[in-house]
């Protein structure tokens, strides 16, 4: 493509209402960046082209500004407002082409998985890991950047690291505040009687979640019957009436205004849910379960909202709610958490989404008949007597160790037939036993040999044992907690540790490549071997460079590393020989076996 | 804290305090070497064993190589002990540093012991002998009874009938330190006497044996001989009879005393005399403080501070009386109560709450001993609290100073007193201070110089 | 003042279970004679008994076709000499040992297994017996000495005992009984190395067999309590190799049944122990294909 990249001045909006952040949109074939002009802004954006599902845009004819709305595969949308329609179209066409390319891409065999194909979250995770772990970063730098390992090979052995983090990330969801809605105190200006309530989307969400009746009313009335503003005004009027505890006024106003009455009446939807919940309680589980268990909808249960126990005219009962009711309801909602994933400013969308969720939740319990049936089944299952029932067949295959003895002394029959000394043995059986018995007789007759042990031998043994102890001590250090490593100069210690880590990494890849079945592995092993011999010589160099008094210890430390490397080299050579021998004369096309 | 804490545990301290020649003489006996080896701390045992066949001196640095950082102190204790007992001899060389040698007599004897075992110089009874030997059970009862009689006589020697054959002069020796001999109201138990009674049998035995040995010279007996005989005794087999004919006169006399203590049982045959060591004797060389033969407990302590002791023993009753009020005595049961008064009585006699609690724990009835804790917690707490009650006030002789001429002088005086560690109280507002009387003189001098 | 008596003996009281290798085939090839060896061992046992009156020693003979208890200090009542100038320990042990060897010989003749077995001793058997004994001591009451096992082994490992030995080792580990091992043979014993490593015991291979007593007293006489303060020799490496179940070979690399963890030295279609059917590995596919390919020109 001639122009590999398009760059336009745009405003990025995270939602429709967002006034937008000015910045640049840069589109490449594979990726789409948004860089805000204000460097402090955090709305930097990176979207992989292949993740874009669709794009919508405003028509030139309409009087809306030139918007381009892209939705990614996760359902998130990005809105960009361009300065003019021409810009927008350029971008739109570019993205369309890129998208088309992306479509084709998957049909091609995925020979090499390029890092660009990884989803962005993974990449970010990797960067994060590298940033946090300097050890990892060093290894990464050493091997990936020097092309000994590819990026993927490097990470393939560390799936756990990535996996662990990503799980943690995805599961986390912002919950609701535990503050109650009723805790939103209105602000008053001292002069007039005006009472002002401040509403935020969060509060609206909470109100909807806690009060299904309000939610329902919103769906019913807004915007057909009244504006959103009017709706909330009414709602808070009702709340205000509650808070004044003036039930008479509440009753009067409810009689006048039927919409207002909706807010003041006890929540019918909640009551229904509660009844359903009670119905679902297994009678075999709790024989006393009845409506009394759900206190929320029992009138005159619990204390009033602020603890006063004023006399209530019975007919106005329904306009009162107890504090306990509110608390319970609120607690239930908070515990449930944010059940929908709508991140919209549009109140109506929120309301509808919540209703949908609720309906789905209830769907199973809705039809009483079904519920009853289910209950009966459950009861019979619980109360069923095991010995009267047909045996249950679980889909499993028992582990069949035919004869447990197999495990312990498996197959004496095919004990090895190595003729090692067998003949000699047979001849000697009698002789050997004879010798043994002779020895015993001898000692019985003459007692223990005196002297048991020569003093100089004894001292020698003790000295040599002390020697072993002291050399062992030198390696571990005088104090088991203080290792020998700590006595090395810092740079040497770091170097040793680093070599150790890198050798581990290399060996892991090296051994996991065996047996070599593809050309790719063959090349990889070659690369690894070169890197290892490189490290080997570095180890040698380090040994030389270290101070003479520490050299012995360092070489002891280095020895196991070198041994491991030697083993790898040996295996490599042996494998190479074998391969050569096998392939013999004819070079086969797919010659890696 | 009572200064007269009885250290009855360590017999080996006594051995160690013997003069060098006597020690070397002791090591001529195989059994003593063995007994000494057993009494050593674990690390010291290991050192002896690993040097058993080494004749060259072993450098100290070589031994230290084996010691881990955690064991440094144990190592030092072990080496010190070995040198103290003259098992190790230290050779200091300017070039090679310190090195150790095993005492050759000790080494030879131990080698001999390990290879051929030792043969006791006593003649064991032949199995065809007609004399019926007591069973182990009988022997143990005998030993305990004998020991109890002895203890009883020990504590009420003044007005008791003579129960054992121990001469009163000997008894006097044992009572030294345990009883105060006042002419007017007869002998009374001292603090250490009370502590002695509350100790377990093994510790008591050691205490008595120690006294017996330290007194040996007064009876014209060589303590080293006595020690060697006692140690040898512990290698005899419990319940077997041994002929007296191989013993010296001194040993025979000793044996009679030991029979009174319950360490051996003497048996007269038609022709020969025999002695049968009891468990008390064979346990003598066990280096452990808590003997493996613990007798069954008998005390049931209830949460209401009542105590039931299933015992017929007069001695037990006397011991309980030390800190409890005996309410009534049935043929096999003593019912008593722990009260504030009874405990104060005990505290006055110098018995500590820990000793009482330990005694109760060690002697609790098997049914209670299984419980945790075996003594109800409210009782142990209360015993401790009552003891703490007595210690609320501490008296210190002091001098009071006031009317200082100036703040500076007052502060200088305070600092001076503080430096000497004698400042008890100060009131800087009214310029008064209280100082321990030990430094009164210094204080006076100081103030004198200040006023000049 | 004596403290409250604990339920355990004081620190250094130990129960030593000694496994004595009496394999005739081994002893007919060694530089020191069996009687010399016995001298060292007996002296060592007597020394251990002498360290503490409450110390206990049990000796189990590890024969070629059987094993048996040959000495138990707790059941031998009399401590002192029965004639011959020899301690009771020695005489009763030697007597039993002689009986044992006679019996072992008969068993070996009966079975006549010698021709297809490596000349290894029945280590697994004696280990199990030692553990049984210790288990009994544990259950007998609350006052017991601290047990440890010492293997005095000379003959080589019997790979056919691999599973049994490993099981014993793991039970010892669970009982927290350390297995010390002193290997006096010429090769190296992977079993003993692993046993000591896993159970936290000491493994040592003496260099000079005429100084065996010195090794025994310096290293293996150390009671468990003192091991907290003393550094004992540690082997440089441990031979962790396993034996395969199919041919009883000691192997470095092999196949493991993913169901029952049986080890095989070659690929099977089905696990011979538990009967699980193995899937075909890719590797196997490739190699078999190539094998065919390779063979076809030949035929």
Automatic annotation (TrEMBL), chain A:
Gene3D superfamilies: 6.10.140.1200, BSD domain. GO terms for cellular component: nucleus. Pfam families: BSD, PH_TFIIH. InterPro entries: BSD_dom (IPR005607), BSD_dom_sf (IPR035925), Tfb1/GTF2H1 (IPR027079), TFIIH_BTF_p62_N (IPR013876). Residues 112-166, 191-243 form the BSD domain. PROSITE patterns: BSD. One of its GO terms (biological process) is DNA repair. Keywords: DNA damage, DNA repair, Nucleus, Repeat, Transcription, Transcription regulation. Belongs to the TFB1 family. Component of the general transcription and DNA repair factor IIH (TFIIH) core complex, which is involved in general and transcription-coupled nucleotide excision repair (NER) of damaged DNA and, when complexed to CAK, in RNA transcription by RNA polymerase II. In NER, TFIIH acts by opening DNA around the lesion to allow the excision of the damaged oligonucleotide and its replacement by a new DNA fragment. In transcription, TFIIH has an essential role in transcription initiation. This is General transcription and DNA repair factor IIH subunit TFB1-1. It comes from Cardamine amara subsp. amara.
TrEMBL record, chain B:
Residues 381-447 form the Transcription factor Tfb2 C-terminal domain. GO terms for cellular component: nucleus. Coiled coil: none annotated. NCBIfam families: tfb2. Its main location: nucleus. Pfam families: Tfb2, Tfb2_C. It is found in: Nucleus. Belongs to the TFB2 family. The keyword Nucleus applies. GO terms for biological process: DNA repair. It comes from the Eukaryota. Component of the general transcription and DNA repair factor IIH (TFIIH) core complex which is involved in general and transcription-coupled nucleotide excision repair (NER) of damaged DNA. Keywords: DNA damage, DNA repair, Nucleus, Transcription, Transcription regulation. InterPro entries: Tfb2_C, TFIIH_p52/Tfb2. This is RNA polymerase II transcription factor B subunit 2.
Automatic annotation (TrEMBL), chain C:
It comes from the Eukaryota. One of its GO terms (biological process) is nucleotide-excision repair. GO terms for molecular function: zinc ion binding. PANTHER family: GENERAL TRANSCRIPTION FACTOR IIH SUBUNIT 3, TRANSCRIPTION INITIATION FACTOR IIH TFIIH , POLYPEPTIDE 3-RELATED. The keyword DNA repair applies. Coiled coil: none annotated. The keyword Iron does not apply. Keywords: DNA damage, DNA repair, Metal-binding, Nucleus, Transcription, Transcription regulation, Zinc, Zinc-finger. Component of the general transcription and DNA repair factor IIH (TFIIH) core complex, which is involved in general and transcription-coupled nucleotide excision repair (NER) of damaged DNA and, when complexed to CAK, in RNA transcription by RNA polymerase II. In NER, TFIIH acts by opening DNA around the lesion to allow the excision of the damaged oligonucleotide and its replacement by a new DNA fragment. In transcription, TFIIH has an essential role in transcription initiation. It is found in: Nucleus. This is General transcription and DNA repair factor IIH subunit TFB4. Component of the 7-subunit TFIIH core complex composed of XPB, XPD, TFB1/GTF2H1, GTF2H2/P44, TFB4/GTF2H3, TFB2/GTF2H4 and TFB5/GTF2H5, which is active in NER. The core complex associates with the 3-subunit CDK-activating kinase (CAK) module composed of CYCH1/cyclin H1, CDKD and MAT1/At4g30820 to form the 10-subunit holoenzyme (holo-TFIIH) active in transcription. It comes from Cardamine amara subsp. amara. Belongs to the TFB4 family. The lineage of its organism: Eukaryota, Viridiplantae, Streptophyta, Embryophyta, Tracheophyta. Transmembrane segments: none annotated. One of its GO terms (cellular component) is transcription factor TFIIH holo complex.
């Amino acid at each position: 493509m001639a122009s590999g990249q398009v760059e336009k001045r745009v405003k990025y909006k995270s939602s429709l209402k967002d006034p937008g952040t000015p910045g640049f949109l840069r589109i490449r074939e594979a990726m789409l960046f948004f860089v805000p002009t204000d460097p402090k802004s955090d709305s930097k954006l990176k979207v992989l082209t292949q993740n874009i599902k669709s794009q919508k845009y405003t028509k030139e004819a309409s009087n809306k500004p030139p918007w381009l709305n892209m939705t990614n595969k996760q359902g998130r949308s990005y809105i960009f407002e361009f300065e003019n329609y021409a810009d927008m179209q350029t971008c739109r066409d570019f993205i369309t082409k890129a998208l088309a390319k992306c479509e084709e891409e998957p049909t091609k065999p995925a020979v090499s998985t390029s890092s660009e194909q990884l989803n962005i979250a993974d990449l970010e995770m990797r960067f994060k890991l590298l940033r946090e772990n300097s050890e990892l970063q060093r290894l990464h730098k050493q091997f990936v950047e020097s092309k000994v390992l590819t990026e993927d090979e490097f990470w393939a052995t560390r799936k756990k690291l990535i996996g662990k983090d990503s799980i943690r990330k995805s599961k986390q969801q912002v919950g609701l505040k535990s503050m109650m809605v009723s805790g939103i105190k209105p602000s008053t200006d001292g002069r007039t009687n005006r009472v002002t309530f401040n509403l935020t989307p969060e509060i609206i969400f909470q109100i909807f979640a806690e009060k299904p009746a309000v939610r329902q009313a919103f769906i019913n009335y807004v915007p057909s019957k009244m504006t959103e503003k009017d709706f909330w005004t009414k709602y808070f009027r009702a709340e205000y009436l509650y808070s004044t505890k003036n039930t008479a006024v509440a009753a009067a106003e409810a009689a006048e205004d039927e919409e207002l009455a909706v807010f003041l009446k006890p929540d019918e939807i909640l009551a229904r849910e509660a009844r359903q919940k009670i119905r679902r309680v297994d009678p075999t589980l709790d024989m006393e379960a009845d409506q009394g268990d759900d206190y929320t909808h029992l009138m005159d249960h619990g204390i009033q909202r602020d603890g006063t126990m004023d006399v209530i005219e019975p007919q106005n009962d329904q306009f009162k709610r107890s504090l306990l009711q509110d608390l319970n309801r609120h607690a239930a909602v908070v515990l449930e958490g944010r059940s929908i994933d709508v991140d919209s400013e549009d109140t109506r969308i929120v309301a509808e989404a919540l209703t949908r969720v609720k309906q789905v939740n209830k769907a199973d319990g809705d039809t009483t008949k079904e519920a009853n049936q289910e209950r009966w089944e459950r009861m019979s299952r619980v109360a069923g007597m095991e010995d009267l029932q047909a045996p249950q067949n679980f889909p499993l295959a028992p582990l069949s160790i035919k004869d447990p003895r197999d495990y312990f002394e498996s197959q004496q029959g095919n004990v090895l037939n190595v003729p090692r000394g067998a003949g000699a043995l047979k001849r000697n059986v009698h002789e050997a036993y004879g010798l043994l018995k002779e020895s015993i007789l001898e000692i019985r007759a003459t007692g223990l040999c005196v002297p048991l042990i020569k003093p100089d031998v004894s001292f020698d043994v003790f000295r040599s044992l002390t020697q072993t102890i002291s050399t062992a001590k030198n390696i571990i250090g005088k104090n088991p907690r203080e290792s020998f490593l700590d006595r090395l100069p810092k740079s040497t210690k770091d170097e040793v540790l680093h070599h150790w880590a890198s050798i581990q990494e290399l060996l892991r890849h090296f051994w996991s490549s065996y047996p070599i079945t593809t050309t790719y592995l063959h090349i990889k092993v070659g690369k690894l071997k070169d890197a290892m011999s490189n490290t080997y010589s570095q180890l040698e160099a380090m040994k030389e460079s270290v101070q003479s008094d520490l050299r012995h210890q360092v070489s002891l430390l280095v020895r196991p590393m070198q041994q491991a490397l030697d083993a790898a080299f040996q295996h490599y050579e042996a494998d190479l020989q074998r391969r050569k021998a096998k392939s013999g004369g004819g070079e086969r096309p797919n010659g890696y076996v | 804290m009572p200064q007269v804490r009885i250290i009855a545990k360590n017999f080996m301290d006594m051995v160690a305090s013997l003069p060098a020649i006597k020690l070397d003489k002791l090591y001529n006996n195989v059994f003593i070497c063995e007994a000494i080896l057993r009494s050593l701390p674990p690390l010291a045992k290991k050192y002896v064993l690993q040097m058993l066949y080494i004749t060259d001196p072993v450098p100290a640095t070589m031994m230290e190589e084996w010691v881990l950082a955690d064991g440094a102190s144990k190592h030092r204790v072990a080496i010190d002990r070995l040198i103290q007992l003259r098992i190790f001899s230290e050779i200091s060389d300017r070039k090679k540093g310190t090195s150790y040698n095993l005492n050759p007599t000790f080494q030879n004897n131990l080698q001999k012991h390990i290879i051929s075992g030792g043969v006791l110089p006593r003649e064991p009874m032949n199995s065809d002998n007609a004399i019926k030997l007591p069973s182990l059970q009988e022997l143990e009862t005998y030993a305990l009874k004998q020991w109890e009689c002895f203890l009883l006589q020990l504590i009420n020697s003044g007005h008791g009938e003579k129960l054992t054959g121990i001469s009163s002069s000997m008894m006097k020796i044992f009572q030294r330190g345990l009883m105060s001999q006042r002419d007017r109201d007869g002998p009374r138990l001292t603090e250490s006497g009370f502590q002695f009674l509350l100790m377990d049998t093994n510790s008591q035995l050691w205490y008595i044996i120690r006294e017996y040995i330290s007194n040996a010279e007064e009876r014209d007996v060589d303590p080293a001989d006595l020690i060697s005989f006692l140690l040898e005794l512990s290698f005899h087999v419990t319940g077997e009879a041994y002929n007296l004919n191989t013993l010296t006169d001194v040993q025979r006399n000793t044996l009679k005393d030991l029979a009174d203590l319950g360490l051996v049982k003497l048996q007269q045959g038609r022709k020969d005399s025999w002695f049968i060591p009891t468990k008390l004797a064979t346990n003598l060389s066990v280096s452990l403080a808590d003997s493996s033969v613990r007798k069954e407990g008998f005390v049931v302590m209830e949460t209401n501070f009542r105590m039931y002791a299933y015992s017929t023993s007069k001695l037990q009753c006397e011991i309980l009386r030390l800190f409890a009020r005996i309410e009534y005595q049935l043929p096999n049961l003593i019912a008593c109560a722990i009260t504030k008064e009874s405990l104060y009585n005990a505290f006055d006699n110098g018995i500590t709450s820990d000793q009482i609690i330990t005694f109760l724990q060690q002697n609790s009835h098997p049914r209670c001993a299984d419980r945790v804790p075996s003594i109800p917690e409210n009782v142990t707490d209360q015993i401790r609290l009552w003891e703490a009650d007595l210690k609320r006030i501490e008296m210190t002789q002091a001098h009071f100073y006031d009317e200082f001429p100036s703040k500076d002088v007052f502060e200088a005086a305070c600092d001076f007193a503080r430096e000497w560690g004698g400042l008890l109280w100060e009131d800087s507002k009214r310029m008064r201070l209280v100082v321990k009387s030990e430094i009164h003189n210094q204080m006076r001098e100081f103030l004198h110089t200040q006023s000049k | 003042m004596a403290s409250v008596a604990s339920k355990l003996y004081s620190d250094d009281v130990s129960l030593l279970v000694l496994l004595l290798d009496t394999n005739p085939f081994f002893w007919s090839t060694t530089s020191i004679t069996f009687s010399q060896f016995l001298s060292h061992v007996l002296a060592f046992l007597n020394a251990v008994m002498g360290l503490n009156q409450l110390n206990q020693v049990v000796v189990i003979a590890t024969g070629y076709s059987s094993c048996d208890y040959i000495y138990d200090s707790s059941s031998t009542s009399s401590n002192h000499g029965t004639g011959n100038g020899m301690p009771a320990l020695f005489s009763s042990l030697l007597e039993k040992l002689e009986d044992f060897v006679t019996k072992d010989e008969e068993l070996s003749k009966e079975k006549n297994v010698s021709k297809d077995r490596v000349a290894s001793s029945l280590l697994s058997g004696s280990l199990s017996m030692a553990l049984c004994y210790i288990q009994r001591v544990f259950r007998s009451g609350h006052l017991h000495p601290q047990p440890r096992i010492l293997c005095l082994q000379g003959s080589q490992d019997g790979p056919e005992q691999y599973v049994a030995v490993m099981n014993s080792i793991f039970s010892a580990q669970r009982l927290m009984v350390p297995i010390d091992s002193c290997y006096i043979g010429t090769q190296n014993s992977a079993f003993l190395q692993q046993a000591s490593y896993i159970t936290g015991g000491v493994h040592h291979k003496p260099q000079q067999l005429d100084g065996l007593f010195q090794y025994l007293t310096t290293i293996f006489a150390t009671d468990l309590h003192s091991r907290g303060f003393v550094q004992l020799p540690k082997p440089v490496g441990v031979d962790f190799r396993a034996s395969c179940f199919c041919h009883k070979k000691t192997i470095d690399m092999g196949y493991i049944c993913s169901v029952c963890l049986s080890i095989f030295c070659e690929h099977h279609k089905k696990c011979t122990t538990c009967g699980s059917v193995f899937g075909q590995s890719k590797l196997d596919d490739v190699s078999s294909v190539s094998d065919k390919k390779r063979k076809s020109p030949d035929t």
